[in-house]
């Protein structure tokens, strides 16, 4: 029974090269994949690479506090991420923090103002019919609306918030007195009149009038509204429900602020299925925005455009209102019943893409308030990265010095194992950036530094088990094999506890702390791989060399230093030859 066991042990000892070859092949494959993908360095987080971090806090409307829940927060995160990525920011990070906060990290190299405008524009999107409009302050020369395309058309230019601008059309009256009378008539009529407007631009009074007090209040707000002032723009339409007419501001193609009276919302952002910026080469229209509506949205849009098409300017226009601001106000010539529409005008690529993003991703389930904006310069990020690398180098140097002093020749195995672990960690982190969006931040660097100690601890456990076997009088090769099962059990238990702690920390925390937990968990798994596929097989090979097997004083396995008597290999010979013992010899 002993012979087969010995044969199995000999077989196990004779094939450590397979494990070494396997881990070396894995390193070569990962390195090749890293260079093939073009990502030869780990992706850096905001705190190391520089960028902008925005903290948004969810704000519930009165009586709707229950709307702030996990489902709506997750939906908001998804929409914000798509909205920012729609600007070409493929490395942005959007994640929840706690119950009410969302953190948006935008890397350097991105137009942070444009990104902030896209992320901070968190109110719902509405399509409202235009009742009246004029350049804020009045007396301006009307701007002719662009010619209509086969669907819908509008006029748009880029503005500070990088959204599309409304058309600069105004009420067609020539004087402020006539214009005020037209506005009054429009307020008294239904916001989307079913009859044709008169030549003065006001609808007929045959529609159902609104309450006199509400009309007077809205007219007063419109008359007093000065959209050239930021404070007035911020308060325009405050408290208005989607079902109420309201006032709003927008910027026209000449850069002038324009004020509006808008009817109740006919279509909201959830009715828009998708929107895309398209450059029209066949029609010569240039950049346009193509919209597609949902089934219900198609019906609403067809009904609205059918009524608007019967009116004269500006009451044949609908305003696209986002966060209380008019971002575009295209006019309609005919009912659009196909479930899609095209907005054309003075778009460029940026303004068309911006409007398309707002239409596609503008309808958030919650409103958000910008709590803080932190900008980290590339220089500051570089300093933090340098400090982290220095700390890691110091920690690694201390571990190496300790191994050299205490384990001598065995430290060579430990150092090679650390290098293999570092190579695996680096290549995997480089590949995880484009794969799952992993970003190496400062806490993640701390996790990698802590992992140096965890990996070194596994080597120490195994080396000490081997030394214990030698102290008991065994030679090196049997000691290496007998020590492995005991060391393996201890290493697995220790790494399991570390990995469990990292997993729990990753689940219960948010933000940058997750980077620490993720790195700690990853390096703990790699520690198991390195010890099983590299450290143990390499020590098995080294045990066959004369330097280690003879117990050289610099091998780290010197019998005198370990308290055992040499030689390491014991020659077991029978005390007497086989056969009967001569009494005289006894």
Q: Can you tell me about this structure?
A:
The chain has 586 residues and is of the alpha+beta class. It is 48% helix and 15% strand. The chain has 17 helices and 13 strands. Strands 4-6-5-11-10 form a five-stranded mixed beta barrel, surrounded by four helices. It has a four-stranded antiparallel beta sheet with strand order 2-3-1-13. Helix 4 runs antiparallel to helix 10 (349-361) and helix 6 packs antiparallel against helix 7. The two termini are 34 Å apart.
Features:
586 residues; 15% strand; five-stranded mixed beta barrel; four-stranded antiparallel β-sheet; alpha+beta; 17 helices; disordered N terminus; single chain
Task: Briefly summarize what is shown.
This protein has helices at 2-14, 16-37, 46-49, 70-85, 112-120, 176-188, 212-224, 230-235, 295-308, 349-361, 378-407, 410-436, 442-471, 476-508, 513-542, 546-549, 559-562; strands spanning 51-59, 93-97, 101-107, 125-135, 246-251, 257-262, 267-268, 272-280, 286-293, 318-322, 325-328, 340-347, 367-376. With 586 residues, it is an alpha+beta fold.
Strand elements, count: 13
Average pLDDT score = 75
Q: Please summarize the sheet with the most strands.
A: 5 strands, mixed, barrel
Oligomer: single chain
The percent range for strand residues is 15-25%
Strand order of the largest sheet: 4-6-5-11-10
Q: Low-confidence spans: pLDDT under 50, at least 5 residues? A: 1-13, 138-179, 191-210
Q: Alpha-carbon distance between the termini?
A: 34 Å
Secondary-structure content class: alpha+beta
Query: What order do the SSEs take from the amino end to the carboxyl end, as H and E?
Result: HHHEHEEHEHHHEEEEEHEEEHEHHHHHHH
Radius of gyration: 37 Å
Number of alpha- plus pi-helical segments:
17
Specify the overall morphology.
elongated
Share of helix, binned: 40-55%
């Amino acid at each position: 029974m002993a012979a087969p066991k010995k044969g199995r042990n000999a077989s196990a000892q004779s094939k450590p090269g397979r494990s070494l070859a396997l881990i070396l092949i894995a390193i070569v494959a990962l390195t090749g994949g890293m260079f093939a993908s073009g990502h030869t360095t780990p992706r850096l987080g905001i705190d190391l690479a520089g960028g902008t971090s925005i903290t948004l806090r969810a704000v519930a409307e009165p009586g709707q506090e229950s709307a702030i829940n996990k489902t709506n927060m997750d939906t908001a995160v998804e929409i914000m991420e798509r909205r920012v990525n729609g600007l070409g920011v493929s490395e942005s990070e959007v994640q929840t923090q706690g119950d009410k906060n969302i953190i948006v990290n935008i890397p350097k190299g991105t137009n942070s103002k444009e990104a902030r405008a896209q992320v901070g524009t968190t109110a719902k999107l509405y399509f409202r019919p235009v009742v009246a409009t004029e350049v804020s302050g009045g007396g301006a020369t009307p701007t002719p609306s662009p010619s209509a395309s086969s669907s819908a058309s509008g006029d748009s230019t880029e503005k500070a918030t990088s959204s599309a601008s409304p058309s600069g059309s105004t009420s067609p009256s020539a004087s402020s007195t006539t214009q005020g009378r037209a506005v009054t008539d429009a307020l008294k009529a239904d916001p989307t009149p079913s009859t044709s407007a008169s030549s003065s631009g006001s609808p007929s009074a045959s529609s159902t009038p609104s309450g006199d007090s509400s009309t007077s209040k809205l007219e007063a707000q419109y008359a007093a509204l000065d959209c050239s002032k930021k404070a007035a723009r911020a308060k325009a339409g405050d408290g208005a429900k989607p079902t109420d007419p309201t006032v709003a501001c927008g910027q026209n193609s000449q850069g002038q602020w324009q004020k509006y009276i808008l009817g109740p919302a006919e279509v909201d952002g959830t009715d828009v299925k998708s929107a895309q910026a398209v450059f029209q080469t066949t029609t010569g229209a240039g950049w346009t925005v193509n919209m597609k509506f949902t089934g219900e949205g198609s019906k609403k849009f067809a009904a609205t455009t059918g009524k608007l098409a019967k009116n004269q300017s500006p009451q044949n226009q609908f305003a696209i209102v986002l966060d209380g601001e008019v971002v575009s106000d295209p006019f309609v010539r005919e009912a659009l019943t196909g479930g899609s529409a095209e907005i054309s005008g003075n778009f460029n690529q940026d303004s068309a893409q911006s409007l398309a993003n707002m239409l596609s991703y503008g309808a958030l389930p919650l409103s958000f308030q910008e709590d803080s904006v932190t900008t980290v310069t590339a220089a500051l990020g570089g300093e933090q990265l340098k400090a982290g690398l220095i700390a890691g180098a110091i920690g690694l140097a201390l571990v190496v010095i300790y191994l050299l002093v205490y384990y001598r020749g065995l430290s060579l195995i430990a150092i090679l194992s650390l290098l293999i672990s570092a190579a695996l960690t680096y290549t995997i982190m480089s590949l995880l950036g484009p794969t799952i969006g992993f970003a190496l931040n400062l806490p993640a660097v701390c996790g990698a530094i802590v992992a140096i100690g965890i990996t070194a601890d596994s080597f120490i456990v195994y080396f000490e088990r081997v030394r214990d076997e030698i102290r008991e009088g065994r030679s090196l090769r049997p000691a290496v094999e007998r020590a492995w099962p005991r060391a393996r059990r201890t290493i697995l238990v220790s790494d399991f506890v570390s990995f469990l702690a990292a997993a729990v920390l990753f689940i219960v925390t948010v933000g940058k702390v997750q980077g620490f937990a993720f790195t700690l968990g990853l390096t703990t798994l790699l520690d198991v791989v390195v010890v099983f596929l590299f450290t143990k097989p390499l020590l098995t090979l080294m045990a066959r060399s004369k330097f280690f097997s003879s117990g050289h004083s610099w091998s780290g396995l010197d019998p005198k230093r370990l308290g055992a008597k040499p030689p390491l290999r014991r020659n077991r010979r029978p005390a007497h030859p086989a056969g009967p013992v001569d009494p005289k010899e006894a």
